[in-house]
Amino acid sequence: MSNILGFDFGINKIGLAIGNTITCNANPLGIIRSRNSKPNWDEITKVIEEWGPSLFIVGQPIVDNNNDIIIKKAKLFADELSEKYNIKYELVDESYSSIEAYSQYKNLRQHGYKKLNNIDHLAAKIILERWLISHKKSL
Fold first, then answer.
1. 129: nearest Cα among 47, 9, 2, 18
2. pLDDT tens for residues 30-69?
3. Rg for the chain (alpha carbons), in Å?
4. 3-state SS string over the chain?
5. pTM, two decimal places
6. How many Cβ atoms from other residues are within 10 Å of residue 73's Cβ?
Protein backbone atom coordinates (compact mmCIF):
# COMPACT_ATOMS: atom_id res chain seq x y z
CA MET A 1 0.00 0.00 0.00
CA SER A 2 1.20 3.47 -0.82
CA ASN A 3 -0.17 6.66 0.72
CA ILE A 4 -0.74 9.64 -1.52
CA LEU A 5 -1.23 13.14 -0.17
CA GLY A 6 -3.56 15.52 -2.00
CA PHE A 7 -3.52 19.31 -1.83
CA ASP A 8 -6.09 21.93 -2.76
CA PHE A 9 -3.74 24.90 -2.86
CA GLY A 10 -4.94 28.35 -1.97
CA ILE A 11 -3.08 31.52 -1.12
CA ASN A 12 -4.63 31.74 2.37
CA LYS A 13 -5.28 28.08 3.12
CA ILE A 14 -4.46 24.65 1.79
CA GLY A 15 -6.84 21.71 1.96
CA LEU A 16 -5.33 18.27 2.52
CA ALA A 17 -6.54 14.74 1.88
CA ILE A 18 -4.96 11.30 2.16
CA GLY A 19 -5.57 8.35 -0.11
CA ASN A 20 -3.99 5.01 -0.83
CA THR A 21 -3.38 2.87 -3.86
CA ILE A 22 -5.20 -0.22 -2.56
CA THR A 23 -8.66 1.20 -1.91
CA CYS A 24 -8.33 4.07 -4.40
CA ASN A 25 -10.32 6.16 -1.92
CA ALA A 26 -9.39 9.43 -0.26
CA ASN A 27 -10.32 11.07 3.02
CA PRO A 28 -10.12 14.72 3.97
CA LEU A 29 -7.43 15.51 6.55
CA GLY A 30 -7.97 19.17 7.28
CA ILE A 31 -6.82 22.63 6.39
CA ILE A 32 -3.51 24.36 6.89
CA ARG A 33 -3.65 28.12 7.04
CA SER A 34 -0.90 30.05 5.33
CA ARG A 35 1.29 32.60 7.09
CA ASN A 36 1.64 35.92 5.27
CA SER A 37 0.41 34.22 2.07
CA LYS A 38 3.12 31.54 2.35
CA PRO A 39 2.51 27.84 3.08
CA ASN A 40 2.94 26.82 6.71
CA TRP A 41 5.76 24.36 6.08
CA ASP A 42 5.95 23.29 9.74
CA GLU A 43 2.34 22.04 9.63
CA ILE A 44 2.83 20.44 6.22
CA THR A 45 5.93 18.64 7.55
CA LYS A 46 3.91 17.20 10.45
CA VAL A 47 1.32 15.77 8.05
CA ILE A 48 4.01 14.30 5.78
CA GLU A 49 5.82 12.72 8.73
CA GLU A 50 2.57 11.22 10.01
CA TRP A 51 1.37 9.74 6.71
CA GLY A 52 4.61 9.05 4.81
CA PRO A 53 3.26 9.66 1.30
CA SER A 54 5.03 8.38 -1.79
CA LEU A 55 3.45 10.96 -4.09
CA PHE A 56 1.83 14.39 -3.91
CA ILE A 57 -1.24 15.34 -5.94
CA VAL A 58 -1.73 19.09 -6.27
CA GLY A 59 -4.84 20.69 -7.70
CA GLN A 60 -4.08 22.79 -10.76
CA PRO A 61 -6.53 25.58 -11.55
CA ILE A 62 -7.75 25.70 -15.12
CA VAL A 63 -6.00 28.17 -17.36
CA ASP A 64 -7.85 31.42 -17.84
CA ASN A 65 -6.85 35.06 -17.69
CA ASN A 66 -8.49 35.60 -14.29
CA ASN A 67 -6.47 32.85 -12.57
CA ASP A 68 -2.92 33.47 -13.85
CA ILE A 69 -1.57 34.34 -10.41
CA ILE A 70 -3.08 31.32 -8.64
CA ILE A 71 -2.01 29.01 -11.49
CA LYS A 72 1.59 30.13 -11.12
CA LYS A 73 1.47 29.97 -7.31
CA ALA A 74 0.00 26.46 -7.34
CA LYS A 75 2.79 25.25 -9.64
CA LEU A 76 5.41 27.01 -7.52
CA PHE A 77 3.94 25.39 -4.41
CA ALA A 78 4.09 21.94 -6.05
CA ASP A 79 7.70 22.50 -7.14
CA GLU A 80 8.73 23.67 -3.67
CA LEU A 81 6.84 20.81 -2.01
CA SER A 82 8.60 18.24 -4.17
CA GLU A 83 12.02 19.76 -3.69
CA LYS A 84 11.63 20.20 0.08
CA TYR A 85 10.48 16.63 0.76
CA ASN A 86 12.10 14.82 -2.18
CA ILE A 87 8.75 13.38 -3.26
CA LYS A 88 7.39 13.64 -6.79
CA TYR A 89 4.12 15.36 -7.56
CA GLU A 90 1.48 15.38 -10.23
CA LEU A 91 -0.85 18.22 -11.07
CA VAL A 92 -4.55 17.41 -11.45
CA ASP A 93 -7.20 19.62 -12.99
CA GLU A 94 -9.22 20.96 -10.08
CA SER A 95 -12.10 22.23 -12.22
CA TYR A 96 -15.39 22.29 -10.31
CA SER A 97 -13.87 20.56 -7.27
CA SER A 98 -15.06 23.40 -5.02
CA ILE A 99 -18.59 23.14 -6.39
CA GLU A 100 -18.59 19.40 -5.81
CA ALA A 101 -17.08 19.89 -2.34
CA TYR A 102 -19.80 22.38 -1.44
CA SER A 103 -22.42 19.84 -2.51
CA GLN A 104 -20.80 17.21 -0.26
CA TYR A 105 -20.65 19.76 2.55
CA LYS A 106 -24.39 20.40 2.28
CA ASN A 107 -25.03 16.66 2.33
CA LEU A 108 -22.91 16.24 5.47
CA ARG A 109 -24.80 19.06 7.18
CA GLN A 110 -28.12 17.36 6.37
CA HIS A 111 -26.87 14.19 8.05
CA GLY A 112 -26.10 15.85 11.35
CA TYR A 113 -22.46 16.85 11.04
CA LYS A 114 -21.56 20.00 12.91
CA LYS A 115 -20.65 23.15 11.05
CA LEU A 116 -17.56 22.76 8.90
CA ASN A 117 -15.31 25.81 8.67
CA ASN A 118 -14.75 25.53 4.94
CA ILE A 119 -14.59 23.06 2.11
CA ASP A 120 -10.93 23.08 1.05
CA HIS A 121 -10.19 19.67 2.60
CA LEU A 122 -13.21 18.22 0.76
CA ALA A 123 -11.92 19.73 -2.49
CA ALA A 124 -8.51 18.11 -1.82
CA LYS A 125 -10.30 14.77 -1.36
CA ILE A 126 -12.09 15.18 -4.69
CA ILE A 127 -8.89 16.15 -6.51
CA LEU A 128 -7.07 13.15 -5.06
CA GLU A 129 -9.94 10.77 -5.88
CA ARG A 130 -9.90 12.00 -9.50
CA TRP A 131 -6.25 11.03 -9.74
CA LEU A 132 -6.78 7.66 -8.01
CA ILE A 133 -9.68 6.76 -10.32
CA SER A 134 -7.79 7.79 -13.45
CA HIS A 135 -4.75 5.69 -12.43
CA LYS A 136 -6.57 2.71 -10.91
CA LYS A 137 -5.55 0.25 -13.64
CA SER A 138 -1.87 1.12 -13.33
CA LEU A 139 -1.67 1.00 -9.53
1. 18
2. 899 998 889 999 999 999 999 999 999 999 877 555 667 8
3. 14
4. CCEEEEEECCCCEEEEEEEECCCCCEEEEEEEECECCECCHHHHHHHHHHHCCCEEEEEECCCCHHHHHHHHHHHHHHHHHHHHHCCCEEEEECCCHHHHHHHHHHHHHHCCCCCCCCCHHHHHHHHHHHHHHHCHHHC
5. 0.82
6. 17
